[in-house]
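Proteins fold reproducibly. Consider a sample protein:
=====
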Amino acid sequence: MKKSLSINDRVFNNLDHLKGYKAAGFDAIDYTCGWGHLLRDDREEKIAKAKENLAEAGIECYSIHMPCYNIFLQPDELNDAKEEEIKRSLEMAGKLGVKWCVMHPMGTIDDVHTAKWIIEKNAENAKRYLEIAEKAGTAIALENVPHFGDCPQYVFITSIVENHLEIVEKVGSPNFQVCWDFGHQQLNISDADKLQTVKTAAKYIRAFHFQSNYGNMDWHFAPCFGNVDWKDIVKTVYDAGYNGSFNLEVDIDRVPVDCLFEHYKLYSRMIDEIVKDAGVC
C-alpha cells in the first residue's frame, strides 16, 4: 500500500523535504495546485525540476488537486483564465506520471438550477477536461462536496451521492471516477447513513482524501483529531477493491517548515495504525 500526503508549492520542489518525506515512510504525494503558477512563463522549467526531484527522492506523484472554481459558482460560470489553468494542470499531470487528477464539481441546487441541469452541465465540463486528460495520459476523479450545516441553503451537487454517481455515469469512462473526501462526508448534513453512502460510492472510488474534523468546519485535521469513525468506512473502500494511494489531505501550512519532518513521521504512523485497525493491510 502506497502512503501519500497532500502538499503544495511550499515544499513541492524542495528535494530535502521530499527525501525526508520518503524517510518517514511515504511513497507518494498528492500535489495541490492552483495558485496561478501554471500561467507563468517558467512553468515548464518548474515541472521538469519537479519530475527530477521526485525521481531522486523515490517519490511518486499519485494524484493532483486540479485548480478549482469557487464552489458556489454554477457550472456555466466559466472563465478563460481558469479554463487555461485547468488545461495546463492536466498536461502537467501527464508529464509527472500522475494517475488521478481530482476536480471539484460546480453548482448548488435551488429553485432556478435543478439537479438535472447541474448534473448535465458538470458532465459536459468533465467530458471536455477528460479529453485533455486522456491525451496527456492521466485520468480524473470527481470529489464529494458537503452540504454544510452552517449554510444549509446551499446544497452542492455532489452532497448527494446519487447525483455524484450520475455525473460519473453520464461521462461514461473508466478514466472518470470518484475521489472521496472522508472529512467532507463527516460534515455533510444530507448524509444520514454515512457507512451506507460509502458502500454506494465505493466501487467508483479511485482516490481519496483522508482528513478529519469535529463536524463543524472543514478543518483538514490529522486523524488523531476530530470525531470521524474510520474503521468501517476504510474497510468498506478497500473491500470494494481500492488499490490506490492512502492519501492524507491534512493542513500542514500552519506547521513551521523545520517541524515538518516530525509531522511526516507522525502521519505515516497514523496511516499504519488506521489500516491495521481496519484490517485491510
Remarks:
- The chain has ten helices and ten strands.
- The chain has one domain: 3-278.
- The chain has a mean pLDDT of 93.
